[in-house]
Amino acid sequence: MSKYFRKLPNLNYPSLLKTRESNVDFIQTKNLFRRVKVREDLFGNFMQFEKYKVVGDERPDNVAEKVYDNDDLDWVILLSNNIIDIKNDWPLTQSQFNEFVNEKYTPQQLVSIHHYETLELRDNKNQLILPAGITVDENFNMEYLSGGQIRSTNSLIDGRPIKAVTFFDFENDLNDRKRNINILKPDLLGVFIKDFERVMKYDKSSQYVNRKLKQTENPRIK
């Protein structure tokens, strides 16, 4: 992310340092409020992206190196997925995940049932009767038509088509879902970076100093 922050424009901000020489001293900082998102015409077109699944403990820079041959483009990976808070929006490493669940739950809670959800059910013609992943009650049952007869999930040899999801399973599933990300296709990388650099430049205004610098109001000066 270092190159990302270097690309951010600057602000002349009133100095709050005790070592300042006067009330008119300014300090130059990065404008962290300046944000860029993927252009709507790119982001709204799934053909411009490729699906990618984060493997193991891969970080954004690892993915950028693999996809773009440049680990400094980790910020492109994050912006392509509207990820602002990497701590909560990027999948945890295995050690981070273990630490997270062990701090949040007791060992007994981790193996307790969080909820029940359906398993996929198909008839003898392979037609979908019940999709997987629907949260249901423990006593869930349904009737369906198969072979011209009304059947019940209670009559299945293996029992009802549901499974118990423990608190550990629940948290692990949430973390795994974060592994499915979008990758901006490499041939569009130049367009994206050009747009990024354009948006990072300031337009003329009362605070304008130059294309990369604005001066904020100093409330101590009247």
- Beta-strand content bin: 15-25%
Identify the strand order in the major beta sheet: 2-1-13-12
Instruction: Specify the structural class.
Output: alpha+beta
Average pLDDT across residues?
80
Low-confidence stretches: none
The separation of the N and C termini measures 39 Å
**H/E topology pattern:** HEEHEHHHHHEEEEEEEHEHEE
* Total beta strands: 13
- Rounded to the nearest angstrom, the radius of gyration is 26 Å
**Main sheet makeup:** 4 strands, mixed
Roughly how much helix do the residues carry, as a percent range? 25-40%
Instruction: Give the count of helical stretches.
Output: 9
Q: Which of globular, elongated, flat, extended, rod-shaped describes the shape?
A: elongated
Total separate domains = 2
Describe the structure.
By secondary structure, the chain is of the alpha+beta class. It has two domains: 2-98 and 179-215, no CATH class; 108-174, no CATH class. The chain is 30% helix and 23% strand. It is built from nine helices and 13 strands. It has helices at residues 2-7, 40-43, 60-68, 74-79, 86-89, 94-104, 107-110, 167-177, 189-199; strands spanning 10-14, 26-30, 49-53, 113-118, 121-122, 128-130, 135-136, 143-146, 149-152, 162-166, 180-184, 208-210, 213-215. The strands form five sheets. It has a four-stranded mixed beta sheet with strand order 2-1-13-12, with no helix packed on it. Strands 7-4-10 form a three-stranded antiparallel beta sheet. It is elongated. It starts with a helix and ends in a 7-residue tail after the last strand.
